[in-house]
Design goal:
The structure is a single chain. By secondary structure, this protein is of the alpha+beta class. The protein has seven helices and eleven strands. A hairpin with a 7-residue loop joins β3 and β4.
Length: about 200
């Protein structure tokens, strides 16, 4: 954090992306810069803005406006774990609004040990990419290795690992979701993937 004076500290919300990108490069990893727009899980939900340019300009008290702010800088928006902390995966009023505005590009169908089969149908019907993510709040070792499990992964069928290529593949819906020995996504892509992996 940078301090302009003792009373008004200025926080640089890009710092995590800056550090991760720099450190990832040392290991040959491509880090997709992102930010989360998070509000009450029942009424609004959680969203990831991927490929962001300036996290400092995203936040707004109105979550829809924050998502719009991310979109203005070319971000790809993913709806995270739409069934988490809820009794249904049916869309609430906020979700209907952002989906109808075409602000959502993808949806997380697997999160940790959770799987939302109805959301696979939503992704297919609305033309959204699918994702599986760890949502790790501890460590990979604690959450996965100690259980002898591979971590959740989003498989992206990109031409290379550049940000431009990854973004193109995600927007073209060339993604598959993998978690706990289950893989899900578009049928044709699943068949192509299977055919490429098996002799």
């Amino acid at each position: 954090a940078k301090a302009s004076n003792n009373k008004n500290p200025k926080v640089d919300f890009n710092l995590a992306n800056t550090i991760s990108t720099r450190e990832g490069a040392k290991y040959g990893l491509t880090v997709i810069p992102g930010a989360e727009v998070t509000r009450n899980a029942v009424n609004i939900g959680h969203y990831n803005a991927l490929f962001v340019k300036d996290v400092n300009t995203i936040w707004n008290e109105d979550a829809a406006e924050a998502i719009r702010n991310a979109r203005k800088q070319g971000a790809v928006i993913m709806h995270n774990h739409p069934g988490w902390s809820r009794t249904t995966t049916d869309m609430n009023e906020f979700e209907k609004k952002v989906y109808e505005e075409k602000l959502i590009d993808g949806v997380e169908i697997m999160n940790g040990q959770e799987f939302y089969p109805r959301i696979v149908t939503r992704a297919s019907e609305l033309g959204l990419f699918v994702a599986a993510n760890t949502d790790i709040h501890n460590t990979t070792g604690r959450d996965y290795a100690m259980q002898n499990q591979m971590r959740d992964m989003t498989l992206i069928m990109a031409k290379d690992k550049s940000l431009a290529s990854l973004k193109e593949a995600i927007l073209a819906r060339r993604t598959l979701a993998y978690a706990y020995e289950q893989i899900a996504g578009e049928e044709k892509l699943l068949k192509d993937f299977f055919g490429a992996c098996v002799e």
